[in-house]
Design a protein that fits this description.
alpha/beta; two-stranded antiparallel sheet; 5-stranded mixed sheet; 36% helix; 6 helices; 7 strands
């Protein structure tokens, strides 16, 4: 009887903790703000890019799957460039040298921003897996939040919104 009570108590506590923790950004809501300096030393604020389609990749330099995700972006370079889809890469727990070495030789023709997290993005996005890939529409709402996407999946998701006009005025 005591074991059943303890098991039930632990299960209830686990469910309570799970309900208090946000694992992903809710679809249809704005992504948490990111305000950092990019690797070139320029100020970057995610919300300043409202009105643009964006891919937000939260990653590290040492993650093979993160590099694989970048390869998927390169596979659809023409599509991303034609549709002015911005790639925003935030490197978590990496040094500036690690990021510069990782990006050496990388060339993105579409709008591209890379920055090093100061710990705030890790907390704000409650990162529990990498790469974490979010797709953001022109209205600055998350369309998708999750793990790695193939090039075809990225194109399919953005094609759904490319015909929709942006709600943001003046962009």
């Amino acid at each position: 009887m005591k074991k059943i009570f303890l098991s039930s108590l632990l299960a209830g506590l686990f469910l309570l903790l799970m309900s208090m923790t946000t694992w992903a950004v809710e679809i249809g809501t704005p992504p948490p703000e990111i305000q950092l300096k990019d690797v070139a030393g320029q100020d970057f604020k995610l919300s300043d890019h409202q009105g643009e389609l964006m891919i937000l990749k939260l990653a590290t330099t040492w993650c093979p799957t993160c590099r694989q995700q970048s390869a998927e972006f390169h596979e659809i370079t023409e599509f991303l460039t034609e549709n002015k889809i911005r790639i925003v890469e935030v490197f978590l727990q990496d040094s500036e040298k690690m990021v510069r070495d990782y990006l050496a030789g990388e060339e993105f023709k579409s709008p591209f921003s890379a920055m090093i997290d100061d710990g705030e993005v890790l907390k704000a996005y409650n990162v529990y897996l990498i790469p974490r890939v979010l797709l953001v529409d022109r209205d600055f709402h998350v369309m998708r939040d999750g793990n790695i996407l193939t090039a075809q999946q990225i194109m399919a998701e953005f094609k759904k919104v490319l015909e929709k006009p942006a709600a943001v005025e003046g962009r």
